[in-house]
Amino acid sequence: MVISALSAFVGTTIAFVVFAMLTSYEQRRGKRLILGGVRGWLDRQLGKLGRAVDHGFDYIARRIIKFTWYYSISSFFRGLLKLLESLYLYLEQKMRWHHRQATQARAETPRSGNLGALAEHKEAVALTDKQKQKRKADSLEG
Q1: Could you give the C-alpha distances from 79 to 65, 86, 90, in angstroms and in order?
Q2: pTM
Q3: What is the spatial distance between Cα 126 and Cα 50, in angstroms, rounded to a whole number?
């Protein structure tokens, strides 16, 4: 087990060194020696994939920022709406209380003006039932 792991490590190290020397030589020369067309095509495909992934990350980041901004604005307006709702309910309660107080005060105050005075005078000089019957009898007799 140890020997196979050691041989894999040595083989990988040798392959790495060979590829490093090969790419170094290719860079100095300016041209690829082994499978130049295939490696060029793979480079172009990986470049396209990298640009797509980069564009995707940019798009997602912009969307996250945009959604966060909209959510913040929405939360602010939701809070403002709740505040206005509670203010409206408070003012409506106060308005109803004042309306009840005004109705009660109107009922408790004596009548005023000419009609009120006439109504009070009528109640003050109103005849009793006995007086009404006597007048009725008098008017029928004579």
Answers
A1: 21, 11, 17
A2: 0.42
A3: 107
